[in-house]
Design brief:
heterodimer; A: about 350 residues; alpha/beta; 8-stranded mixed sheet; 4-stranded antiparallel sheet; 12 helices; 12 strands; globular; B: about 325 residues; Rossmann fold; 2 domains; 10 helices; about 25% strand
Chain lengths: ~350, ~325
């Protein structure tokens, strides 16, 4: 991590090469040194630098574990998610799922992987084909993945509709997405993600488009599926207040890097990174007292990922900035508490 | 700034004269015509707004909160069937004005609006400075130079650097564009600004920033706000009073200290209980069932079907009961 930072010039000009497959370490999903850089072109072919959307991210996810990734828009959380889903190829680093590096897989081999990983989209209406009935929406992934017998498909459909509590199934099976309410549409998306019995589900802001009264219902549903299927869940969100009802661990992402990794309770009790602190302070609860106070918000805006600031990427906005350290050298990961790591020089 | 200062002074005088009521909405009705019948989007709504006060209208999507704002500002869609009631702004009944009079005297002169997803509603081919000064030229017939100077003042108020005047919308971040849209609503120094979901597409830190700005503007310019949102937690940042809407009707109105802490209507209680909280250790609850169709809403209390404390009385239309500083439309409190 620090060696990368010492050669910023070279880092800008040399496109890294995807490394060879490596074996995992028992975790379901292991992300190691992941970089996803989008190349910028000048006049169509000249090189004009990289957008460093994900820059040196590593973590492990075990079977049945729920983890939340929190960050602002543009921090790279969607790119991270897309890389994990195999939709974007990493520039450097490995995404190892059950011992197989999916970064090196060809499109055909990816089909196996996609049956193992479900995807719950942000906007349920946009994610469901408007011309397909519920039956076809649920049936399609099974047809593609070789569940040929119609009776098999019906058994699975029945089971998955029960799991998302859309009963009786006959009421819904012939409907089109526009005939369902927002909450029901999101249940459909979850049902579709679950129909192939995946080991992991990636949920990208699954409740941000829904009404407050329905949000909790959907989060509880995801939570109960996670428990009953021993499912690993990656929950990507910008809303800290929903995280504590959902996941055990939380990763905070800022400008392409994971700045803090810990248990949710530890984060709420004792946020270590100044950015996490600011995020927590800015998230309101419904409280009439809010009316009388101004929130403390770090100045400025998240940095441009084409030319991120040297050193710690948060240093221009940080009130604990240490001169000649934070603005020069990138902070390594420290672990001041057990299972609570933070990339910040304050804990050196 | 002369025009704006003068108008603020007038506002202050009016405050004393006019019983502190900036806006009174009486028995406002707005129904939409559709092929299936009339959609009763705003159904006999009464509420009022004092000078320099912010009221938030809360409710699920489809409960009629945006329709209510549009009805107040008379931004009517083409398919409006019924549109009746009284909207008194500074004592003047705006419903009796013709459309042209309303445009000349009220809209953007006394009330303006920051529409939903305002940051994407800016004109991409105009410089934001020109865009913000345009309402001044149209409504106050001032020279362009003067309008631009006023726009620059407003940029200061909402926290946009003055040299952004010459930029285009795409050159600004989401938060900055939202501030520009706010400046455009404020530039003619109206006494009331309607904010429709002002921060729903923004990040947590940007959202906190915008609400800081709104609070400051409310103090500095003595403006009143109607805030429309389904984000209950954020609305508590600005709201002096709370209006809870359900299925086209107002079910509860009260000051934020009462409604956020101890709501009276079962719907408001459920709605507040559904908010995930960061700092309190309670599991959020959800409201089972669906809101009724506004094509043919149920007789009696519209929430009865989903209400945990329903009883026989609820088959009749509930009266509006006054409890201290709160008004609630529910038989439980009769």
């Amino acid at each position: 991590m620090t060696t990368d930072a010492k050669e910023p010039v070279q880092e800008m000009t040399q496109p890294p090469v995807a490394s060879a497959p490596v074996s995992g370490n028992g975790a379901l999903l292991s992300i190691q040194g992941l970089h996803v850089w989008y190349e910028l072109r000048r006049f169509g072919f000249g090189h004009a630098g990289y957008v460093k959307a994900v820059d040196n991210v590593s973590f492990d996810l075990t079977h049945g574990e729920a983890v939340a990734i929190v960050g602002e828009s543009g921090c790279g959380k969607s790119t991270l998610m897309k890389t994990i889903l195999g939709l974007v190829k990493p520039t450097k680093g490995d995404v190892v799922f059950e011992g197989t590096n999916i970064a090196g897989l060809a499109a055909k081999q990816l089909r196996w992987y996609r049956s193992q990983v479900g995807y719950v989209q942000q906007d349920p209406y946009g994610a469901l084909a408007p011309f397909m009935t519920v039956e076809r929406i649920l049936g399609e992934p099974m047809v593609i993945n070789g569940i040929k017998a119609k009776s098999d498909r019906q058994v699975r459909m029945q089971r998955v509709m029960e799991e998302v509590k859309m009963m009786p199934i006959e009421d819904f099976i012939q409907k089109y997405p526009h005939m369902l309410s927002g909450g029901q549409q999101q249940r459909m998306v979850i049902a579709r993600a679950m129909v192939l019995n995946p080991k992991m589900v990636v949920a990208d802001e699954p409740v941000s488009m829904l009404d407050a009264s329905v949000r909790v219902e959907i989060l509880r549903l995801l939570r109960s599926l996670q428990a009953s299927h021993n499912l690993a869940v990656m929950y990507i969100t910008h809303d800290l207040s929903t995280v504590r009802y959902f996941s055990e661990r939380i990763f905070v992402m800022y400008a392409g890097k994971l700045v803090e990794k810990c248990k949710v309770d530890d984060l709420l009790r004792n946020p270590l990174h100044p950015y996490t602190d600011a995020l927590l302070a800015a998230s309101p609860d419904p409280d009439p007292h809010n009316l009388h106070v101004f929130k403390e918000v770090p100045p400025g805006e998240p940095p441009n990922l084409i030319k991120p600031p040297p050193g710690c990427r948060f240093h221009p906005r940080c009130r604990h900035m240490i001169k000649d350290l934070c603005d020069v050298e990138e902070p390594p990961e420290y672990q001041p508490e057990e299972r609570h790591s933070v990339a910040c020089w304050l804990y050196r | 700034m002369s025009a704006a200062t003068a108008s603020i002074a007038q506002t202050a005088q009016a405050t004393a004269a006019d019983d502190n009521k900036l806006l009174r909405v009486e028995d406002l009705v707005m129904y939409f015509r559709t092929t299936k019948g009339e959609v009763q989007a705003v159904d006999h709504v009464d509420f009022d707004l004092h000078y320099n006060e912010a009221v938030v209208i809360l409710g699920e999507s489809g409960c009629g909160k945006t329709s209510l704002a549009k009805a107040i500002l008379r931004l009517l869609p083409k398919n409006v069937g019924t549109y009746t009631g009284r909207v008194l702004l500074e004592g003047q009944d705006t419903m009796t004005l013709t459309d042209e009079e309303f445009r000349e005297q009220i809209r953007w002169v006394k009330m303006s609006m920051v529409p939903q997803a305002a940051m994407n509603s800016l004109n991409p081919v105009l410089k934001v400075g020109d865009q913000v000064s345009e309402p001044m030229i149209v409504h106050h017939q001032v020279k362009k130079q003067e309008a631009l100077a006023q726009a620059r003042k407003m940029f200061d108020h909402v926290g946009v650097p003055g040299d952004f005047m010459n930029r285009y919308a795409f050159e600004l971040s989401g938060g900055m564009r939202q501030r520009v849209a706010l400046a455009m609503a404020l530039v003619t120094a109206p006494s009331l600004v309607v904010l429709d979901e002002p921060t729903s597409a923004l990040d947590v830190l940007t959202q906190a920033n915008i609400f800081n700005t709104l609070k400051r503007i409310k103090q500095e310019l003595e403006i009143s706000f109607i805030l429309i949102t389904h984000d209950i937690a954020t609305s508590s940042e600005l709201a002096d009073r709370v209006v809870v809407m359900y299925a086209g009707e107002i079910v509860e109105v009260g000051d934020s200290a009462s409604v956020f802490v101890e709501p009276l209507h079962p719907y408001s209680r459920k709605l507040l209980a559904s908010v995930p909280r960061l700092r309190a250790n309670q599991d959020p609850d959800f409201i089972a069932g669906q809101p009724p169709s506004l094509l043919d809403p149920p007789t009696g209390c519209r929430f009865a079907e989903r209400c945990p404390s329903r009883f026989e009385k609820c088959a009749e239309t509930p009266p509006t009961i006054k409890r201290g500083r709160v008004q609630v439309k529910c038989w439980l409190h009769a």
